[in-house]
Amino acid sequence: MPVDTVELAQFLIGKLLVRELSGGRRIGRIVETEAYPPGDSSGHAFRGQTASNRSLFFEHGRAYVHFSYGTSILLNVTSEAAGTGASVLLRALEPLAGIRKMMRSRGTSRIVDLARGPGRITIAMRVDKRFDGADLCARGPLWLGTDSQQLMTIGATVRIGISREMNRKLRFYVCGSPFVSGPKKLPA
DNA sequence: TATGCGATATTCT
DNA sequence: GAATATCGCATAG
Length: 188
What we know:
Elements: H1 5-11, E1 16-21, E2 24-36, E3 63-68, E4 72-78, E5 87-97, H2 99-106, H3 118-124, E6 142-145, E7 154-157, E8 171-174
Antiparallel strand pairs: 1-2, 1-6, 2-5, 2-8, 3-4, 4-5, 7-8
The protein binds a DNA duplex (13 and 13 nucleotides) through strand 3, strand 4, strand 5 and helix 3.
């Protein structure tokens, strides 16, 4: 797993997010990420370490779970060396397993809408703040798995929902995937 | 299909 | 008091 934030954001495209629950396993392929590198003024670590972004400063490969907009829980994968404060935001998944359970958690039967958007991922996968700081590299209740490599083109655009550093192309996605969030018109 | 707005936790000014 | 790494519903075209 790459240590560099931008490399990690691209590396994670196509990887699997696996959630082990007593009722069964839920799996989604990561199709969209955003990098928040060190020193990025739109990142949560920019103003230093606080009680709520503590896990953002862990070594790479851990979970940083944050509550945003009063309504949404967001899941990030930490990057860089311990003490740096950088991460990759997971923005969208393609549901692969446990789809019926995701539908029940999300309250919709449209597969493309189950995990298309960062706040939806955590609802579909039943991730909450208890996972803040958890190690995602080793098998556990929540971990990152690899899929057989398949041919996919990775596109890069500007990030969504921020007001600073808006011109940096740090959002990565699988070209042509209907499971990617945001505006539909994307460069192929 | 596109745009607008309310809900609502946490932090910063 | 304002801003924020958002979503879902409403309304209009």
